[in-house]
From TrEMBL:
<dbReference type="InterPro" id="IPR045225">
    <property type="entry name" value="Uracil/uridine/allantoin_perm"/>
</dbReference>
<feature type="transmembrane region" description="Helical">
    <location>
        <begin position="171"/>
        <end position="189"/>
    </location>
</feature>
<keyword id="KW-1133">Transmembrane helix</keyword>
<dbReference type="GO" id="GO:0015205">
    <property type="term" value="F:nucleobase transmembrane transporter activity"/>
</dbReference>
<feature type="transmembrane region" description="Helical">
    <location>
        <begin position="201"/>
        <end position="219"/>
    </location>
</feature>
<feature type="transmembrane region" description="Helical">
    <location>
        <begin position="360"/>
        <end position="381"/>
    </location>
</feature>
<dbReference type="InterPro" id="IPR012681">
    <property type="entry name" value="NCS1"/>
</dbReference>
<dbReference type="Pfam" id="PF02133">
    <property type="entry name" value="Transp_cyt_pur"/>
</dbReference>
<feature type="transmembrane region" description="Helical">
    <location>
        <begin position="437"/>
        <end position="456"/>
    </location>
</feature>
<feature type="region of interest" description="Disordered">
    <location>
        <begin position="502"/>
        <end position="523"/>
    </location>
</feature>
<protein>
    <submittedName>
        <fullName>Cytosine/purines/uracil/thiamine/allantoin permease family protein</fullName>
    </submittedName>
</protein>
<feature type="transmembrane region" description="Helical">
    <location>
        <begin position="387"/>
        <end position="414"/>
    </location>
</feature>
<keyword id="KW-0472">Membrane</keyword>
<feature type="transmembrane region" description="Helical">
    <location>
        <begin position="325"/>
        <end position="348"/>
    </location>
</feature>
<feature type="transmembrane region" description="Helical">
    <location>
        <begin position="281"/>
        <end position="305"/>
    </location>
</feature>
<feature type="transmembrane region" description="Helical">
    <location>
        <begin position="51"/>
        <end position="71"/>
    </location>
</feature>
<keyword id="KW-0812">Transmembrane</keyword>
Length: 523
């Protein structure tokens, strides 16, 4: 790359952008090493890296439980698979739209959010996403600890499983939960590279446990015939469609967190083509696979035991063979660690670091995530499929849909994918707005969120909805939140569009020879 002046952002032939120098930013209170733009020579993740990342994130016990819970709610296998497949294809769209900025500019999600929410306002979007990730971290850690409890119980005997009850759970289950929590904290303390290595190592193995569960159930149930003939309770009439809409929103909400913060991972992408291919190959295929396994296994469990057991650890505990139980659950524990680190620790670590860049490192952010994940009491969120889908997933899906609407509208329509890298780390730059806050993004997010979840009903919410006349919208919460915030942000921002987008080919951006091998450019 040709020598560049201080402040220059350089555009490479493949469209990726980097700063000429960052030394002058290091004194900024909005900068630290974890949040800094990744240099192009360090953006090395391949198509396989992203495929492996998605395999690691999707193949875990809560993903299985998500699909299995649809069977528990009364769907047959066709209805459940259809619901999950449509949901994953829909959520892939905003995920790829937000991923683009990470690869182009090498920035994580909270820095990306500064361009639209403001230097301080970005903390609202980042911390909202972070606290939800903490809840997911707790849920994943709880189910992983539960699997360890069952494994040790099969090996150690009834003394372990029938231990004294403390605060509503066996003390040995609390111990398993604590040890599993500690193991994950040790990995995250070693940094992002340790997470990447763990993902690549576990990705080819995480399917083993689920296939063992399915194989055992198929043999015991007498093949696919009895399982596929198991009827659903809803039929295809009004009862199904009443459950379908909120269930579809829950499927989307399951990955709505990642649809916001995929820049945390795509900032390391070797090219746009590599991250796009990796995600298209990764998310729909891995989630469809786990859905098929979960649906067939849960339906088979119903044939064998006369009830729909949607928690795979509890289903495995019913098996006669200790060897099958131990091998399957060990694989499931590895899968859960892989998913939890990638989906629920990496991103909130960046988000907490963004709130206090000079005080909170990536590792400290991970520790905060782990602590909040315990305080949120995940065993309560995971205890019932109705709470899991309609209350937990539905409510936060609507909130995050509103944030996604602002990001998509701002980056693709208002800013036309053009950002000033230096100003994303500079006080009183173009993204300072009013005191560090962009009121347009805040109003749009609030409007989208109220439309999406104002009518929340069921579970802990009033039967008539928090705001009764908005109750019909709650069944479509994520779509309503995204569309509402998207439209409001555009209406408020278009009068200012020229001021915020007139940054192409200006004095702070140059094009020139690239340091990367032209043969590596594929989009």
């Amino acid at each position: 790359m040709e020598p560049t002046a201080r402040g220059t952002q350089h555009v490479h032939p493949d469209g990726r952008v980097e700063l000429g120098e960052v030394e002058s930013l290091k004194d900024s209170r909005f900068y630290n090493e974890e949040l800094a733009p990744v240099p192009v020579e360090k953006r090395t993740w391949t198509t396989y890296t992203y495929f492996a990342l998605w395999m690691g994130m999707a193949h875990n016990i809560p993903s299985y439980a998500l699909a299995a819970s649809l069977i528990a709610l009364g769907m047959d296998w066709v209805q459940a698979l259809l619901t999950i497949t449509i949901g994953n294809l829909i959520v892939l769209i905003p995920m790829l739209l937000n991923s683009h900025a990470g690869t182009k500019y090498g920035i994580p999600f909270p820095v990306f959010a500064r361009a639209f929410f403001g230097m301080r306002g970005a903390n609202l979007a980042a911390l909202l996403r972070a606290f939800i990730a903490c809840g997911w971290f707790g849920i994943q850690t709880w189910v992983g600890g539960e699997a360890i409890y069952i494994i040790v119980g099969r090996l150690a005997g009834s003394g372990w499983k029938d231990s004294a009850v403390v605060l509503g759970q066996h003390w040995t289950l609390w111990l398993s939960f604590g040890l599993f929590w500690l193991f994950q904290m040790l990995i995250i303390w070693r940094g992002m590279e340790a997470v990447r290595r763990f993902e690549n190592w576990t990705a080819p193995l995480v399917s083993v446990g689920f296939l063992i569960l399915l194989g055992y159930v198929l043999v015991k149930a007498g093949g696919l015939g009895p399982i596929l003939s198991e009827p659903g309770k809803l039929g295809w009439g009004p009862d199904f469609w009443k459950v379908f809409a909120p269930s579809l929103m829950a499927m989307i909400a399951f990955w709505s967190t990642l649809s916001l913060n995929m820049p945390d991972f795509t900032r390391f992408g070797g090219s746009q083509g590599k991250q796009v291919r990796g995600q298209i190959l990764g998310l729909p295929t891995t989630m469809t696979f786990i859905a098929i396994v979960a649906i067939l296994t849960t339906s088979g469990g119903s044939v064998l035991y006369g009830e729909q057991i949607w928690d795979p650890a509890k289903l495995a505990d019913r098996f006669d063979s200790p060897v099958v139980v131990v091998v399957a659950l060990v694989a499931l524990v590895l899968a859960t660690v892989s998913a939890n680190l990638a989906a629920n620790v990496v991103s909130p670590s960046y988000d907490f670091s963004n709130a206090f860049p000079k005080k909170i490192t990536f590792a400290v952010g991970g520790l905060i995530t782990g602590i909040i994940g315990i305080v949120i009491q995940p065993w309560r969120l995971y205890s019932d499929p109705n709470i899991y889908i309609f209350a937990w997933l539905g409510f936060y899906g609507g909130l995050l849909g509103a944030v996604a609407g602002v990001l998509v509208a701002g980056y693709w329509v208002v800013n036309r994918t053009k950002l000033r890298l230096r100003d994303l780390y500079t006080e009183r730059g173009i993204y300072w707005f009013n005191g560090g806050w962009n009121w347009r993004a805040l109003v749009a997010t609030l409007a989208g969120a109220v439309l999406a979840v104002g009518g929340a009903y069921g579970g802990p919410f009033p039967a008539d909805g928090l705001i009764p006349f908005l109750k019909p919208l709650y069944d479509y919460n994520w779509v309503v939140g995204l569309a509402g915030a998207f439209v409001v942000y555009l209406l408020l921002s278009l009068p200012e569009r020229k001021r915020t987008t007139d940054i192409e080919e200006d004095a702070s951006e140059r094009r020139g020879p690239s340091r990367i091998d032209p043969a590596a450019v594929d989009g």
